[in-house]
Specification:
Length: about 170
């Protein structure tokens, strides 16, 4: 990967709590050239997984799932925080590095037997993406891979996923 996003990612130590560094992609999103390059790189990464569907994870994963789906001529679905989707949903809980949360997907989404690529901004401990993977599998989809902007490699989140993971920028912690 040739794109270095480091100068476009701000780092805030001690947020949301002491011992955690928040990696903020906002500066990268504000710069049209950087954003365009990020999307192009992510399209290349996701294309290798031959997706039928890109599943964006609430909320920053949505920023990338739609342009990826459009560029790859496939659909997109939303994996949302619990309580945000109408109708029958499939839910699962997961641990964050600073708490616990739940994710859901509508049971009526047409992903059965389709290759699904998960998309999020950050892979840290793997809790969010692993929960997303469980939801995809419970809904009958085939987990093809995951793409994210940042991976914190020292937290070994990719080892929990059970699929290939591609990231644009890596930091140890």
């Amino acid at each position: 990967m040739s794109l270095n996003l480091d100068e476009h990612i701000s780092k805030t130590p001690g947020f949301p709590k002491e011992g955690i560094t928040f990696y903020d992609i906002s500066p990268a999103l504000e710069d049209a050239d950087t954003l365009s390059k990020m999307i192009a790189e992510m399209v290349g990464l996701a294309k290798a997984y031959q997706p039928d569907i890109i599943a964006g994870i609430d909320a920053r994963g949505f920023l990338f799932s739609m342009p990826l789906a459009l560029a790859l001529d496939c659909g997109t679905v939303m994996i949302r925080k619990a309580g945000k989707l109408p109708g029958k949903v499939i839910e699962t809980s997961y641990a964050l590095e600073y708490g616990e949360a739940r994710l859901s997907i509508q049971a009526s989404r047409a992903i059965k037997n389709k290759r699904v690529v998960l998309c999020d901004d950050l892979l840290a401990t793997g809790g969010t993406l692993t929960a997303g993977a469980r939801l995809i599998e419970q809904a009958g989809g085939i987990l093809a891979g995951a793409v994210c902007v940042i991976e914190l490699t020292g937290l070994k989140g990719r080892q929990k996923l059970g699929c290939d993971v591609s990231a644009l920028q890596c930091y140890e912690f």
